[in-house]
What we know:
Number of helices: 4
CATH superfamily of the domain at 62-226: Nucleoside Triphosphate Pyrophosphohydrolase
Amino acid sequence: MSPTFPPISSDVTAIEVIEDFSASARCDEGFLQLRRLRCQNLRADGTHSKVYRVDVVDRPRLDAVAVLIYRQRAGELREVLTRMNLRPAAYFRREKSPAVPDPAPYLRVEEIVAGLLEPEDRGEEGVRRRAAAEVWEEAGFRVSPEEVRLLGAPFFVAPGILSEKVFLAAVDVSGREGEAPPGDGSPLEEGGELRWRPLEQLLRACRDGEVPDAKTELALTRLLAGEGAQPTPVVR
Length: 236
């Protein structure tokens, strides 16, 4: 059985803002790039709508891949590997006033392994290659691109704002021993804890809000649909 490795650092208790330079930063610099546009609709009869504003958020790397890593016991799909990641955007919700009270701290969010596609990752072969690389970097399992299975077409996360699409993939690591994941050295990887979850339990956790990550739930349901299985009903 593959071990669950301890977190890289388990003593992160908060994320401190050293400087908020939003007012002085350019929209086209940084990890996320914001384009502020004035647009109008062109109609079939040659008329135009009134001019309106559109904000579009891009990343330097357009799309991403998310990988559902699972293992089987006695031929039955049983467990999925997740990772606890620091997620500043979710954490800073505490400074907002949501319509429905949301007391969760969101310092860390549980989700499946994911990573951005690099410029050299072209075509489905490139997506599989990047998926295999992320499985090693974030989860410590060595798999080949040929073992990675794509779970349907990519999807938009928020098509009204974000240009990014996410490719979903899955890989079976049954019978393999994992190693300590090398990571990429980012401070955001502190506290990055891996855990195995029974598939049905993880699906319930997604639907109950304990695991509030859409790509994780969608990957689970697509894998189950591809295997001809039905999700376990959620008992409330």
